[in-house]
Amino acid sequence: GGGGVLAASISISAGPLSAQSTVWDGGAGPYVIEGIVTVPYGSLLTILPGAMITFNEGAGIIVNGRLTAKGTNTSHITFTNSTSSLWGGIYFSDTSEDSGFSTTYQSTGIS
């Protein structure tokens, strides 16, 4: 019998997300955050159920716009570090808009 197919990781470079609306799909990834990624004011980052977001050392997300990460009871969203080192977490600035998390798992670092 054949083995399972492993999804290729998707690297997210440091800097602002370029699209007005960005979707990270649970069927893709894992998404590897390489540095500090910014969701600009007026932009939306949607993380779908089943997504795995892995942060390299010191990497994180700054939300100046909107971040929605809503998993389900059977398909969580996972935020974790790529090694035993610390990651920068997820920071919601004073300019962030209606953002929300539900049924997600994080190792540490959401503020």
- How much is the average pLDDT? 84
End-to-end separation in angstroms reads 45 Å
Structural class: mainly beta
Helix percentage range = under 10%
Beta-strand content bin: 35-45%
Please provide the ordered H/E string of secondary-structure elements: EEEEEEEEEEEEE
What best-fitting shape do the alpha-carbon axes yield? globular
Strand order of the largest sheet: 1-4-7-10-13
For the biggest sheet, the summary is: 5 strands, parallel
Break the fold down into its secondary structure elements and pairings.
Layout: E1 10-12, E2 15-16, E3 21-24, E4 31-33, E5 36-39, E6 44-47, E7 52-55, E8 60-63, E9 66-70, E10 77-81, E11 89-92, E12 100-102, E13 104-106
Parallel strand pairs: 1-4, 2-5, 3-6, 4-7, 5-8, 6-9, 7-10, 8-11, 9-12, 10-13
Structural commentary:
With 111 residues, this protein is mainly β. The protein is 0% helix and 43% strand. The strands form three sheets. It has a five-stranded parallel beta sheet with strand order 1-4-7-10-13, with no helix packed on it. Strands 2-5-8-11 form a four-stranded parallel beta sheet, with no helix packed on it. Strands 3-6-9-12 form a four-stranded parallel beta sheet, with no helix packed on it. The relative contact order is 0.21.
Summarize the structure.
0% of the residues lie in helices and 43% in strands. It is mainly beta.
Summary tags:
single chain, about 110 residues, mainly beta, five-stranded parallel sheet, four-stranded parallel sheet
